[in-house]
Design brief:
The protein is mainly β. The chain has two domains: 310 residues, Tachylectin-2, Chain A, CATH 2.115.10; 132 residues, Galactose-binding domain-like (Jelly Rolls). 1% of the residues lie in helices and 48% in strands. The longest helix has 4 residues. It is globular, with a radius of gyration of 23 Å.
């Protein structure tokens, strides 16, 4: 029996909905693993939930994630927003954002998966991020939405800030039309919004955050206010001054560029939160995407990123452009279906439509329908597909031997045609699956040999413009 792809993008199972993940590599009992602690989208009608769960993967296989279960329950009968976890000495400290981020407590554990207990109230605020420096000093960063960001050094108790170190608004807050500032703080166009995450990279202090753009970013298809970006600023000290680095991640899906360089998004952007982590010598950005029709069923995503230091001392992170071996600019890395499967998803396994990073052209609002049933063979389908819609996956690995057929599975039997295209949503057609309305599953022969790694797109064609399709999964043989 065929296996289903796992550990792709999202890298947790399709039934799990963990946003805001701050990756950490911890070595515990002689084993190094990557841990992610995210707010938990289980309320379904609002952000997050009343517990945190811990997930981890071995550093040598980022497709193999294990759920350690609930690691922290609310102590205030409240919704928990984005947390952070650090290790100092032999103790792990979780900064839990109770009361929707308005009260941050620090709880502790002797192991990285918790449970984290004995919460102590702090003066930290929304979206806390914590850095344990090389000399053992600890710095906290926080702020967001209509509030400025802050930085402070922490006392040895990991709960009390050193008041004389408090720095207010080191980045300048983005403008907020729904809550304009009138208290003297600096407000900036295209600036800090939320999601503070401090890291130290190549000796530099890197402040990662969610940037809110008010002006258009036409090359990415952004023409309205948007905070789907993860960006960074750089300093030689933990308190700044910080200099702009750029954008690392944008969760708007594949960007289609026209001849004038104007982009079109193929996935519905939403808020973003995460960070970078070096794992076995490779760097990754951890972020999240949206599913469903709102922002209450988000999922954990990751992409490889490049990190390089220029001769001018500037740190570049993301998709870096080099000139004569020297980094000269960077831009957000692409959003993919593959995640840690950096060579592409195995074409000969079942691949859920829920791994799509391109949903484009529907006359209705086509989206990935969230699934919550805990099982290994879960598939979250793309719904509201109409004539002309393309559903794309970047990337699929076909290996060295070309498959002879493709199996396309709908959720229910419908009449219509599905063209399988490679490399572009307008690319070469390599198979056509004709559905006659009697079965939801069709096997179609490939008309061309396909080997290696390719983007794959499923184009839905119907004579009835009102017909809708639900795309469940596919595989090649």
């Amino acid at each position: 029996m065929k296996e289903f792809i796992k550990g792709a993008n999202p890298y947790m199972p399709l039934w799990e909905h963990v946003p805001d993940g701050e990756p950490r590599v911890f070595e515990h009992n002689g084993e190094k693993r990557v841990y992610v602690y995210g707010s938990h989208d289980i309320e379904k009608t609002q952000y997050c939930g009343r517990n945190y769960v811990a997930w981890s993967a071995p550093v040598d296989d980022l497709t193999d994630w294990t759920c350690h279960g609930v690691c922290y329950e609310t102590h205030y009968d409240s919704i928990l927003y984005a947390p952070d976890v650090v290790k100092k000495g032999d103790t792990y400290y979780m900064y839990a954002a109770e009361r929707k981020g308005s009260l941050v407590v620090v709880a502790s554990s002797k192991n990285p998966w918790g449970p984290f207990e004995n919460p102590v109230e702090t003066k930290l605020g929304f979206d806390p991020g914590v850095l344990v420096d090389d000399d053992g000093k600890v710095y906290a960063y926080w702020g967001g939405c209509a509030a400025p960001c802050y930085i402070a050094e922490m006392e040895d108790d990991m709960a009390t800030i050193k008041e004389d170190t408090l720095v207010s608004n080191p980045l300048g807050h983005s403008t907020c039309p729904w809550d304009p500032r009138d208290d003297g703080h600096i407000s900036l166009i295209d600036a800090f919004f939320e999601a503070s995450s401090p890291r130290k990279v190549m000796g530099k202090y890197v402040y990662l955050f969610s940037r809110r753009y008010e002006k258009p970013v036409p090359e990415l298809g952004v023409f309205e206010p948007c905070n789907g970006f993860l960006s960074y600023r750089i300093s030689d000290t933990p308190f700044g001054p910080f200099h702009d680095g750029g954008d690392i991640s944008f969760n708007g899906g594949e960007i289609l560029l026209d001849s004038e360089g104007l982009g079109t998004m193929t996935y519905r952007w939403g808020n973003n939160h995460g960070s970078i982590m070096e794992i076995e010598g490779k760097w990754y950005i951890f972020y999240h995407r949206q599913t469903g029709t709102d922002e209450y069923s988000r999922q954990a995503m990751m992409e490889p990123v490049d990190v390089a230091m220029g001769t001018d001392g500037k740190l570049y992170i993301g998709d870096i452009k080099y000139l004569n071996g020297e980094p000269v600019s960077s831009k957000p890395v692409e959003m993919t279906s593959q995640g840690p499967h950096i060579n592409g998803l195995d074409a000969r396994k079942w691949i859920s439509a829920g791994y799509a990073c391109h949903i484009f052209g529907s006359s209705k609002y086509a989206y990935i329908r969230p699934g919550y049933e805990v099982r290994d063979d879960i598939s979250t389908p793309v719904v509201n597909i109409t004539n002309g819609t393309t559903v794309g996956f970047r990337y699929i690995q076909f290996g060295t031997k070309a498959p002879k057929s493709v199996t396309v599975v709908l959720e229910e039997a419908k009449s219509g045609t599905v063209n399988v295209r490679i490399d572009s949503y307008k690319g070469r057609i390599v198979a056509t699956a004709a559905f006659d309305g009697t079965t939801p599953e069709v096997i179609a022969s490939l008309t061309a040999g396909v080997i290696g790694k390719h983007a794959v797109y499923f184009e839905f064609v119907s004579a009835d413009p009102a017909e809708t399709y639900t795309f469940d999964r596919f595989t090649f043989d």
